[in-house]
Amino acid sequence: MISLNPFSEISAFIPSLVMQTYVIAMFVLVIGATLFDVVHKKSAKYFFNNSVKAKKSATRNVGSGEKASIAFKTATNEFLTSSEFCSTKRRLAHLLTMYGFIIFVVATVVMIFSYSTPNAMTPSIWPLAWHLGAAMLCVGGYWFWFFIRVDVAAEGNKWYRVIRADLFVLSLLAMSTFALIWSYMQSNGIDIWQTLFFGLFIGASTVLFGGVLWSKFAHMFYKPAAAYQKRVTKADGSRENLPEPADMPEKFGLGIKREAPRHY
Amino acid sequence: MPTFVYMTRCDGCGHCVDICPSDIMHIDKTIRRAVNIEPNFCWECYSCVKACPQNAIDVRGYADFAPMGHSVRVLREEEKGTISWKIKFRDGREKNFVSPITTQPWGEKIPKLADLEVPDQAALDSQLLCFEPDALNVETGLPVINKDKLKEGVYY
């Protein structure tokens, strides 16, 4: 199952061009909805105004070299290793879902654009990456959904309480789960079920990439920008008006922050 | 003036909800970020401001010491045992303070807790605070006021 390219198998029924058009449409939907969201919610304006305010209270100038170094640090810490998470569990779950999603999407794009004909010889690395990505998404996503999510971990709500804010994570989970089930059905030749799960996989993917306006999909783009801005404010001394760290040794342990909040 | 939450910084961790003595910091059911549900019941104790790991909570200070255009922000560093304050007035002046956190290791700091027995779980779960009920002086009755020292009438 994990060495088979599911898109090559299904290309007997769905032409390669249709699959490629679908991927391009999803890409356009994500970019278009994110840009519309930026204009509609005025988030870019908010960040711009914030940076102007921060500049006014800056105590030193940050040069372009230093800004490049800050951008590099933001990429290696906040983006690549999700260092902004205080909880190790949340960080791990986020890393699993983030890298799972990236691997899954890259493998999907490569397989659809390069190896989606019935006779294509797909290098085994791509189907493997596709299945691994989906599995990582499932592990990180279900861990988050059942145990780490604020509603469950801190608010004491049941895992099945669903609201609109769950659109992103649920469609992500549905996409990866149905992808794995579809691949399993396909490799075992269970025709009716594989069609059903392929349909569900496409449905979940469409909701995920088409629902950017209503979900938190765009946090992938906002978060690194916000993290970069936060680092710049520390470097230029404005620090969002926060005091400088006290000039004292770290001789104590964590107090209230060592305990996970459980307020129910 | 009550607390408010910067939505772009809050990650919904819930530390403010745990610590709020008025129980008015809640996690919003829709957006899953902290929110002050009863601003008029907030007494600006700053507990949530200090507890927030993302520094996402702020308070509009009173006009007498921090009028419009001001900023009062606080940074709690538990490993250092410090609370730092930065008060910024609208004319650009700044005042910075650093205070120790009063939760110190058992028995080392005032009050002289080393002289007391380490409380058991029952004592910790009890409604009484340290030194209570003795420190409440309920046994000695109400305080006596010497009436000779009182003046008649209303004076300003």
The level of helicity of chain B is: under 10%
Radius of gyration of chain A, Cα only, in angstroms? Answer: 22 Å
The chain-level mean pLDDT of chain B equals: 81
- Count every helix of chain A, treating DSSP H or I runs of 4 or more residues as helices: 10
Strand content of chain B: 15-25%
As laid out across the biggest beta sheet of chain B, the strand order is: 5-6-7
Q: Of all protein chain pairs, which has the greatest interface, and how many residues does each chain bring to it?
A: A-B, 36 and 36 residues
The biggest beta sheet of chain A reads: none
Spans of chain A of at least 5 consecutive residues whose pLDDT stays below 50 are none
The backbone outline of chain B, from C-alpha atoms, is extended
Q: Would you report the number of β strands of chain A? A: 0
User: Helix-strand pattern of chain A, N to C?
Assistant: HHHHHHHHHH
Describe the main β-sheet of chain B briefly. 3 strands, antiparallel
Determine the strand fraction of chain A and express it as a percent band: under 5%
Instruction: Tell me the quaternary state.
Output: heterodimer
Gyration radius of chain B, rounded: 21 Å
Task: Give the tally of structural domains of chain A.
Answer: 1
Overall morphology of chain A: globular
- Topology pattern of chain B, helix = H, strand = E: EHEEHEEEEH
